[in-house]
Write a structure and sequence with these properties.
This protein has 87 residues and is of the alpha+beta class. It contains four helices and four strands, in the order E-H-E-H-E-H-E-H. The longest helix is centred in the last third of the chain and has 11 residues. The model has no long low-confidence stretch (mean pLDDT 88).
Length: 87
């Protein structure tokens, strides 16, 4: 699940293309399965990517996304509490 700040332009859409995601600052996890998946998904957009930070934990990624500093891919189970809080 792509996590974006609900106040961002992307947060106002029900679905967004990967090309649109790639235009945003991307917050990457330093290691792990999600990092490998993001590297693979975003490979076609590598030349245009803005990666302001690589973060060591999901908690930090969620906090930085919530602060509007970028977007990231996280497991739906990790995002569940933010989604439920927004409802």
């Amino acid at each position: 699940m792509w996590m974006v700040n609900p106040q961002s332009a992307l947060g106002k859409h029900e679905s967004v293309s990967l090309a649109e995601i790639a235009k945003q600052p991307i917050l990457l996890p330093k290691t792990g399965y999600t990092r490998r998946l993001m590297d693979k998904l975003l490979r076609p957009y590598k030349s245009q990517l803005q990666v302001p930070m690589e973060l060591p934990s999901v908690g930090m990624i969620k906090s930085f996304v919530a602060a509007g500093l970028g977007v990231s891919l996280i497991s739906a189970s990790f995002a569940r509490d933010q989604v439920l809080a927004a409802v």
